[in-house]
Amino acid sequence: MRTKSTKGAGRKKFILSALALSMILFGLWFSGTNAASFLKGYLLFKTGQVSEVEVSAKTAPSTETVELPEDDEDEVLYPVRPKKGDNIGDLMIPAIGATLPIFHGTDEDELLKGVGHFADSVLPGENDNTVLSGHMDTVFRELGAVGKGDLLIVETSAGKFTYKVRKTRIVDADDRTVIVPKPKATLTVSTCYPFDFIGSDAPERFILIADLVSKE
Predict the structure, then answer these.
(1) Number of domains in the chain
(2) Which one, 55, 62, 128, 210, has least CB within 10 Å?
(3) 117 has catalytic annotation
(4) Positive or negative: CA dihedral 77, 83, 89, 95
(5) What is the active site of this protein (predicted)?
(6) Of 212, 22, 204, 58, whose CA–CA distance to 129 is shortest?
C-alpha cells in the first residue's frame, strides 16, 4: 500500500518529467523556425552599440554644405567584388546607438543575419545609389527615430563613409523609385512600414535618403 508521501513524490516526479519534455520539444521547435533567427536579429540590435565617441559625433541638423574632394574616376574602391552572403562591412547609426553588420544580398538568408545590401546597387562609397534594407522588427526596429540631418556611417574594406540624411519618405511596398540611379554618392536605407505592423506583408516602406559628406 502506497503512503501519501510516496504518492506525492511520484506526482512531483511526473510533473518534472513532463516539464522537461515540454522544454525539449519547445527548444526543437524554436531552433527549427525563423523565431530563433529573428531573436538573433533583435539581440544583434540590442547589443551592437556604437562607441561613445561615435555617438557624440551626432549633432543637431546643420544646413552647412560639405564639399567633397573631386573623385578620381580611375579610383577603384573594391578591386574584388563581394559574393552573395559576404559580410561587406558595418552600418553605424549614432542617432539610435546601433552598429549593424551588412551582408551582400537582400534574400531572407542575408536579412536574418543583419542589414542586406541590394546586389544590383553600387557598393558603399561609390558614386550612384547604394541601397540597404533590413527587417523592421529586428535590426531596424528603431529606424523611425532617425531623420533629416542625422548621420549614417558605413565602414567597409574601402574605408569609412559618412552620409547625412537629406530626407525621409514613405512609399508603397512595390515602389521601385528607391533603387533608381543617383547622380552622386547616395545611401538609401529601406525597411517595412508601419513599424507596428504585424505580419510579413507590410503595405509600405520607410525610406531614408542620405548624401555622402565625408570619406576616410
Answers:
(1) 1
(2) 62
(3) no
(4) positive
(5) 135, 192
(6) 212
The set of cell numbers assigned to 194 is 508601419
Catalytic position from the list 104, 113, 117, 135: 135
Residue 153's closest CA among 115, 111, 193, 110? Answer: 115
Task: Name the active-site residue from 92, 122, 146, 192.
Answer: 192
Is 189 a catalytic site residue?
no
Is residue 160 assigned to a domain? yes
Residue with cell 547625412: 164
pLDDT for 186-197, tens place per residue? Answer: 999 999 999 999
Name the residue range of residue 139's domain: 49-215
Query: Does residue 139 sit within a domain?
Result: yes
Integer angstrom CA distances of residue 190 from 80, 173, 177, 180, 205: 26, 10, 12, 13, 6
pTM, 2 dp: 0.72
CATH code of residue 103: 2.40.260.10
